[in-house]
Design brief:
single chain, 68 residues, alpha+beta, three-stranded mixed beta sheet, 22% strand
């Protein structure tokens, strides 16, 4: 995996989760503590998403374009 992207929808920030366990959970806690008031982080299992479609932001583009 060469890059990571996220998706911001209103006050929720969807971030990829790669299944790294406690190390990854600690990063989410540290970053989550630095978010502006009212914002929340939503980890999404991204291993298959990255292999099949790209990052979370790319996946959201696929969903949007399919409704046209």
């Amino acid at each position: 995996i060469s890059y990571v992207n996220c998706l911001v929808v209103d006050t929720q920030i969807f971030v990829p989760r790669f299944g790294l366990g406690e190390v990854e959970d600690e990063i989410f806690r540290e970053v989550g503590a630095q978010l502006p008031s009212g914002y929340s982080m939503v980890p999404i299992d991204a291993q298959r998403i990255l292999i099949l479609n790209g990052g979370l932001h790319c996946l959201a583009g696929l969903v949007r374009s399919s409704s046209k």
